[in-house]
Amino acid sequence: MGKGRIEAFSDGVIAIIITIMVLELKVPEGFDLASLRPVGPVFCAYVLSFIYVGIYWNNHHHLFHIVQKVNGATLWANLHLLFWLSLLPAVTHWLGESHMAAWPTALYGVVLLMAAFAYFILVHTMLRQHGPDSALARALGRDRKGKLSVVVYLAGVVLAFVLPWVSAALYTLMAAIWLVPDRRIEHMLNE
Amino acid sequence: MGKGRIEAFSDGVIAIIITIMVLELKVPEGFDLASLRPVGPVFCAYVLSFIYVGIYWNNHHHLFHIVQKVNGATLWANLHLLFWLSLLPAVTHWLGESHMAAWPTALYGVVLLMAAFAYFILVHTMLRQHGPDSALARALGRDRKGKLSVVVYLAGVVLAFVLPWVSAALYTLMAAIWLVPDRRIEHMLNE
Amino acid sequence: MGKGRIEAFSDGVIAIIITIMVLELKVPEGFDLASLRPVGPVFCAYVLSFIYVGIYWNNHHHLFHIVQKVNGATLWANLHLLFWLSLLPAVTHWLGESHMAAWPTALYGVVLLMAAFAYFILVHTMLRQHGPDSALARALGRDRKGKLSVVVYLAGVVLAFVLPWVSAALYTLMAAIWLVPDRRIEHMLNE
Amino acid sequence: MGKGRIEAFSDGVIAIIITIMVLELKVPEGFDLASLRPVGPVFCAYVLSFIYVGIYWNNHHHLFHIVQKVNGATLWANLHLLFWLSLLPAVTHWLGESHMAAWPTALYGVVLLMAAFAYFILVHTMLRQHGPDSALARALGRDRKGKLSVVVYLAGVVLAFVLPWVSAALYTLMAAIWLVPDRRIEHMLNE
User: Fold this and answer.
1) Tens digit of pLDDT at every position of chain A (191 positions)
2) Does C11 touch chain B (CB under 8 A)?
3) B172 C-beta neighbours (distance < 10 Å), count
4) Deepest in the core among A120, C164, D77, D104, taking most CB within 10 A?
């Protein structure tokens, strides 16, 4: 089965998710600088989520770039990932509006955690199809960044009930680590 | 007429439908666990509809994969299917908010029924173009799953006025049956 | 310049327009049959607009199918058409909510008229590039349906202030005329 | 790395941005001509932003048309541009609703300025990959229009606090200058 349509569909869903978050940016009531202030925290949460969705799109792009075909299980593993990503706009808005209260901060981490988990399932579904000697397997290597993410998100969820600001810092730090371009697959392709 | 653009358009519409349902997930009023509770039923309805839209996308993907060309009648049969699918977010939200009241549960089943019916029309429009000896005709076979769906959705609509929970269980059961990958077309292609 | 990306962009915008109208279908307040009733007129307006957007997508599909390349003027003529189509959801909702009051019915006709006009400009921009002997020119012929549309929409706008129901009937009639598949280009291609 | 998927993703995001602005066009309360009047300023702001997004799509189209491949840095520079464009619907609505108050007018200019800056970064990221002798470098030339834009948007932001109508006129003038087709790249391709 070709990969063209699963890429197109994923591009569509991710494009909508990343843009829909804008709708959460409510227009201020007044028209002066003071009325802009309450939008601030939601805006920061929006920027963080924009970067996370961008990271997922980049990784998704690289992941499907290195394989030639997909099977039915991959279609569903991909939909499962899109499901968790599609929850990001709602938890982003809750996080921003609550000024980082405990539950919204924890739930934001849960969605990040489940998305990371769904990505892990997707990668391993594709690995099962392509085998341990495939370009995909070599490109992934030991996937240290993926494993670190799970630990960091988990810590974020737990800490949200004690020090939500530390959770937010952890989420931001992990985004920064991912932003540093993941050259594994690019290196592979150039060899 | 090539099938590329009808696939791209359908991917776009289905991607929007599946993501728009997120917008129905209203952010809770408060910021504690208790304020999350009313979101629960809407969330469950959202998950069910997400799976249904995913099933339709998968089946749509397989259906157009096996044919080489489309005609004008197929364009309209496809739009007719997209029309019913595009009503899913609205009835999903009504179902979730009503905590499975009779009419919302029945209407949800009506939309599932009409979408199944529209899919049936789409398949038969394509069969008329490709003939009874086509790969499509052999892949479809007797379409037992499609016929079972119609019966189950009909039962769900009727039962909604007596035992709405049974209707919801039927809708969920049918989604589970569809989730079991439909290997008919995949088998065909591998032969 | 290739036509692939202008097709993809138009597909995206039209897919969003056709799906966004769903968001206008507000979920009823109550959960019984009576609470569904106010949704009725909006639903009818939605169906009509869905068919109109479907017609435009079909015609757009055929139009770009017959040409091989586009120029900068076509990009803007196409954006101009998309602009008027993107106003359809708003006027559809106004029409439905007003139960066909004079101004909403007239404005709906104005948007149909401007979209028809924008389509006319788009076609003629492409004709200027491809010349009077092109396949496009032969396929279009005298474009009687396009000219009839303009007259019918104009009549609808004027009659909206006297007999809005007649306007709505005219809009519906014209949609039905367009729905009868336009075989001109298909014929051309088969020859 | 191929450019197909970055084009498709950008098309998706830009298509959603341009269409989402419609959602900001609130349906009037009443159903007569008077109730349409408050929609007027928002409508004008919408038209201006529609043209700006159209200009960015056109320039983006031309920019990616002239290159053959993209790298990881381009993916992120492109996402950065999409981020600022995705803020346009919100500031458009704020501008329209405020009837051009100082802060909304200034903020609109800030978003235009940041989008122009992001486009500049994108172009220069691509130039670094392709070198000063590439078709891209020759097509861009001295980029006088891009530099003029930055000056005009900056002037608009400052003037918003004194003469907001002049700012709006400047934004409109700059859109008109961009609308005049940028034939640089088209010329290049024809040579």
Assistant:
1) 678 889 989 999 999 999 888 777 777 888 888 888 888 888 999 999 999 999 999 899 889 988 888 888 899 999 999 999 999 999 998 998 888 899 999 999 999 999 999 999 999 999 999 988 888 888 887 788 888 999 999 999 999 999 999 999 999 999 988 887 655 655 665 65
2) yes
3) 16
4) D104
CA distance D25 to C87: 9
Query: How many domains, in total, are found in chain B?
Result: 1
Of all residues in chain A, the one with the smallest CA distance to B43 is A87
User: How far is Cα D130 from Cα A131, in angstroms, rounded to an integer?
Assistant: 36
| ipTM of model | 0.87
Range of the structural domain that residue C171 is part of? 4-190
Alpha-carbon span D137 to D145, nearest angstrom:
15
**Residue among D16, D5, B86, B3 nearest A11 (CA):** D5
Tell me which amino acid residue D22 is: V
SS3 content of chain B, % helix, strand, coil (to 5): 80, 0, 20
With the C-alpha atoms ordered D121, D124, D130, D134, is the resulting torsion angle positive or negative? positive
Cβ-based contacts of B175 with chain A (< 8 Å): none
Q: Is C163 helix (H, G, I), strand (E, B) or coil?
A: coil
Interface of D with A in 46-85 (CB under 8 A): 71-73, 75-76, 79, 82-83
Chain A environment of D15 (Cβ under 8 Å)? 15
Interchain proximity B73–C181, CB inside 8 Å: yes
B15 interaction partners in chain C (CB closer than 8 Å): 15
Q: How far is A117 from chain B (nearest CA, A)?
A: 18
Q: Quote the pTM value.
A: 0.90
